[in-house]
Amino acid sequence: MKVRSIVLVGALLVGLSNMAGVAMAQTKVFVVNEQEVRANSKLGKALDGALQDLANKGIDQLGLKTLKTEVETEAAALKPQTQSLTREALESNPTLKARVEGLSKKANELQQKQNALNATVEKQDTGYNYAFYAVMMRAVDTVSKEANADIVLSYPSTLYTKDSIDLTAKVVARLDATVPTIEALKAALPPPPAQANAPKPAGQ
Does the predicted model carry a pTM greater than 0.90? Predict the structure, then answer.
């Protein structure tokens, strides 16, 4: 390749690189911390409170506090009597054996009830997360358009971010203004397919 051709190609590459740099400089990039939106928004706090209420209600209904106390008390009482016993010695003491078996049965009951409650709370939490994400993205969309953003990135944490490109607080404010409660969240979401497609009563 001739020297003149090499120079022209080099100049072209430099020109393209400069154009790309200018384009990137003109691109408006912002960030949003989704975790902070969930933690600091009124709706996020309401959802967390509802989950805690659900857990507390389950604990009361299942009698977990009482059951846990009974298991801990009986385990503490049996420990000095059984920690040095062999299986044969335990088998030869019907009264003590019955207490150990009763404790094991009660401990299994406690574990099963705790697992069932955890599954219920986790299921509700999953539903809340999907619903929260849907309305949060509406808030992100509105705030992004107001900022004339080209790109909005989600991040859980970062070492340094200029306040001028962080839209988190504005998204929280928008969410607080539009969907501050669980009731507002339910109203903001589309009805389930079965409800949406249900036949209307005659005359409507």
Answer: no
